[in-house]
């Protein structure tokens, strides 16, 4: 099962992804968690110790040079477009019980361009993870889905878009669907987050009536306190945990 999670910044996307990963772990699944959000904090949300010490792959200049035969940051020239990546998930993952986590990092635009050694390595890695790996894969994406392409989209079982009651969140969800349709990714579901009652639930379902909702997670101060305290949302007493666990059967 391959799942991508996206949504506007601040909607609780990473919190949901961490809850989903820990719930799958509780079921005994082996999960490869991929933090593809430049604002990386999935490791901490899962509960991995020393999460801040995990080096993003995009910052591993020596590795990028070894695999692509081109120096990171260079534009033009020749480098491998199909670098070897099949050993990287096992070599570069941080571990937590049945969970392996990789932090992709971001390719700095401007000096590096779009077609550069670092971005080529990351794309090859995502393609390998989605198409070849047998693990349950959960990818915490940024507000877009730029790490996915036509080759990988068909292998993604579900794109989950996390939304909160608000116009900007709804607009981002619609934009993500447009991006997904461009690469042929059609299996999309919504998760409503931070709902404060029936009015918020009705607002989301009315404004996203052509989307399928996987579930709704109520606003919970315990989740906010967990984030402030550096605690995994799965390790606090919150109804969100059981709600997400119930979503797994739907997936």
Question: Could you walk me through the main structural features you see in this protein, from its secondary elements to its overall organization?
Answer:
By secondary structure, the protein is α/β, with parallel strands linked by helices. The chain is 39% helix and 17% strand. It contains ten helices and eight strands. The chain has helices at residues 13-26, 42-46, 61-68, 88-91, 117-131, 150-153, 167-182, 198-207, 221-229, 239-250, and strands at residues 2-6, 31-35, 94-96, 99-103, 136-140, 158-163, 188-195, 213-218. Strand 3 and strand 4 (99-103) form a beta hairpin. The longest helix has 16 residues, at 167-182. It starts with a strand and ends with a helix. The model is unreliable at 109-113 (pLDDT under 50).
Produce a short descriptive summary.
The chain has 251 residues and is of the alpha/beta class. A hairpin with a 2-residue loop joins strand 3 and strand 4 (99-103).
């Amino acid at each position: 099962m391959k799942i991508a999670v996206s949504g506007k910044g601040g909607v609780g996307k990473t919190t949901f992804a961490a809850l989903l990963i820990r719930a799958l772990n509780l079921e005994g699944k082996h999960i490869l968690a991929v933090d593809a959000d430049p604002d990386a904090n999935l490791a901490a949300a899962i509960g991995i110790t020393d999460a801040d010490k995990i080096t993003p792959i995009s910052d591993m200049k020596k590795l990028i040079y070894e695999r692509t035969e081109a120096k990171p940051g260079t534009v033009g020239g020749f480098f491998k477009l199909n670098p070897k990546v099949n050993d990287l998930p096992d070599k570069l993952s941080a571990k937590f019980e049945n969970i392996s986590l990789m932090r992709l990092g971001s390719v700095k635009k401007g000096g590096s361009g779009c077609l550069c050694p670092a971005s080529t390595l990351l794309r090859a890695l995502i393609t390998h993870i989605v198409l070849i790996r047998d693990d349950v894969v959960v990818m915490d994406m940024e507000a877009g889905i730029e790490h996915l392409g036509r080759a990988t989209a068909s292998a993604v079982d579900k794109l989950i878009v996390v939304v909160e009651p608000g116009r900007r969140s709804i607009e981002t969800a619609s934009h993500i669907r447009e991006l997904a349709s461009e690469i042929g990714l059609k299996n999309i579901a919504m998760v409503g987050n931070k709902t404060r009652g029936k009015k918020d639930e009705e607002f989301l379902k009315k404004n996203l009536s052509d989307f399928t909702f996987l579930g709704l997670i109520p606003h919970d101060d315990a989740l906010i306190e967990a984030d402030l305290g550096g605690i995994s949302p799965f390790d606090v007493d919150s109804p969100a945990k059981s709600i997400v666990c119930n979503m797994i059967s739907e997936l």
